[in-house]
Amino acid sequence: MAIRIKIAQDKANLVQSLILNNDNPQGVFSTYADVMAFAAALGKKHKYRLPLDSIAKEPSPISLDVFSSRGYDVLIKLLAITETKNPQIISAYDVIAEEERVTIFEEYANGGLMKLQEHLRGSVDYSERILLMLSHQKNQPSIPDTNFDLTKFLPNI
Fold first, then answer.
1. Could you report the per-residue pLDDT of 23-45, keeping only the tens digit for each?
2. Can you tell me the distance from the alpha carbon of 47 to that of 91, in angstroms, rounded to the nearest whole number?
3. Which DSSP string do the residues of 39-104 spell out, in sequence order?
């Protein structure tokens, strides 16, 4: 059975509203996988993981193969490694590790969708609001991570 990425029921309308199609010309993304990948990256950026309470029937869960075909399998693996600090989690032969990777991705995506919902509240043009949000992030000065200590790479003297 193929593993599928699930979308939280309370975010289903948001996800659908972000898809560009004939019925929704103000949509921003081409596919549900694109929305979920963006949301997962946003969730990670804000360090916000949110478990899914109930699963949406529409849009239905998305096959992991769709994410792989779009190159998002790398994002899924990176999120898993940074979250668990365990490189074994990216094992292609461990079904439990794959399920854990998917759960981490889903929870970051759900958290990112929550943040996106907050940013888009009251907005008519989602693309403009998302561009403003991204340009604001780009212009923020980067704060170095003080938890990274280079002294561990020095030889013992």
1. 888 889 999 999 999 999 999 99
2. 24
3. HHHHHHHTT-----SSB-SSSPPEEHHHHHHTTTHHHHHHHHHHHH--GGGG-TT-HHHHHHHHHH
pTM exceeds 0.90: no
With 0-12 CB in 10 A as exposed, 13-18 as middle and 19+ as buried, what is 124? Answer: exposed
CB atoms within 10 A of CB 40: 28
CA distance 18 to 119: 13
- Residue in this structure with the two tokens 């009251």, named with its chain if needed: 122
What is each CA distance from 30 to 5, 14, 76, 129, in whole angstroms?
A: 17, 14, 19, 17
Query: What is the longest distance spanned by two Cα atoms in the chain?
Result: 67
Helix (H) or strand (E) holding 155: none
Residue 43: closest CA among 93, 108, 99, 105: 108
Closest CA to 16 of 40, 32, 5: 32
C-alpha dihedral sign at 4, 121, 126, 23: positive
∠92-98-103 over CA atoms, to 5°?
160
In the numeric block, which tokens belong to residue 134? Answer: 């991204």
